[in-house]
Every structure is written in structure tokens, then in C-alpha cells.
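Need C-alpha cells for this chain, all 166 residues.
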Amino acid sequence: MSTQKRTTPSAGPPEPEPIRFFGTTWVEHGGGYAWRRAAVAVGGLAAAVAGALLLRLGYQGLAIAKVGGLVNVIVVVGVAVCTALAFRRTWEGFVRGGERRGGRGAGGRAGSGESTQSLMVIGFIGVFLAWSLRALQEAPGEKLHRREYEERVRRAGGKRSVRGGK
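Here are the C-alpha cells for all 166 residues:
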């Protein structure tokens, strides 16, 4: 029902899209926006630390199993590369929106969500760090959402002025 409400033309300004954990508080920076940003930053950092401890436990399991130095190196390098790539992809998604809508099929690169899903799972610490660091600057994805929202408001304002002139 709510998607039908957004697609129908209305006399008022367009509705802003909610951001995960922030809803629409990013528009006016009200409704506990600063506290939400702090919670996302701390929560992302805590999740990254918990994930690192989990990976440490897994690495200790490899050491106990005595799988060999080559396997240990491959695991460490693989996780480090996936973490760096996941961080970069998440950060760019906040700025450019590439992955933000990829799952819904609108705006993202075709099939990019499925092709990098395993990379993002292995590099989950990078995703948490990107969320945490971005929340120190703004609500993750706010700049992109604001740009899109202001463009829709500008277009809606232009349509109203054309109608009003008839």
C-alpha cells in the first residue's frame, strides 16, 4: 500500500525515501538523528570487533588442525582482500548508490548483487567498518538520498508552476 501512495501524484512535495536505521529523520535532522548516527557508528564498530574475534576463533581452529602454512596464508589474504573490497563497495554504495537499489533491480548494475554476495559475506568486517565510519560523517547514504530527494522536489515544483500558469 505504501508504494502505491508514493507513486500516485499528489498536491504536496514528494515523500522522502527512508534510510535504514534513520527512517526519514535525515531530511530535517530531527527525531533523534544525532543519537541514531552515534548508535550506528558504535554498533558498526562493535559488530566489526565481534566479527574480528569470530575470525580469530576460526583462525585458531586452523592452527589446531595444523593445516599448514600455505592454507593459513590463503585464508588470511583472502579474508583481508574480501574485507577491503566489501568496505570499498559499501562506501561507494553510500555515495553513488550502486548497490543500494541493486536488489530491487532499479538503478543498480545488472546482476551485481548476486555476483558479489559471497565477497560481501566473507568481507563482512569491511561492511561494518564502512557503516561505522560513514555514520561519523552523515547517515549512511544520506548524501545520495538528499540529492535524489531535492531533484524530485525541484521537478515537482516545476510541474506545479507550469500547471499554475495555465
